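Re: the 201-residue chain
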Amino acid sequence: MNINIVNALAKSHTYAEYRAIVSQLIQEGKSSGNTQSADLLHYSELNETRMNRLEKTIAITQEAQEQLGRLNKKQTWLLISEGWCGDAAQILPIIYKMAEVAQNVELRIVFRDENEPLMNDFLTNGGMAIPKLIMLDEENTVIGDFGPRPEPARKLIADYKEKNGVVDEPIKVELQKWYLHDKGVSTQNEIMQLMKSKELV
């Protein structure tokens, strides 16, 4: 058993608890995480607005609902996040709604900077990219992971970075537009494809 997973689960939060913690920090003029700055606070405020909207508008596809409803073994979905992360703001409400549909899935959320040992077990190209979803079976053994972005969004950023050498504000705006038009479908499809490949659904 991965001790980093055990330790993270012990201090994990429900979705509602996570939202409340981030909201309280914003009221105090802070962002989550070890680093504090005006930019990170600004992003946290933007993300709170985004998540409030997405919770009302995101719909789980019929196919995903049916597949999630067929899960016959309990899973824990352990999600690594921070309040300032734009990708997390777009993806967390989707995963939350998917977990709500699946009676056998319990969603738990941890903050990246409070759980660096766990984050270091799930790096993306050597980086601490979030959000990161870790799927666990009943024995808390890892059965799959997803993140930090669905493939079309990953490619959008990678192509821009290859061409321009940076990830700057213009591409961040384009990424948010992509999420808006995608309506959470790519994230749902990729998570369900992952589960199918592991023969979980």
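The longest helix spans residues 38-57.
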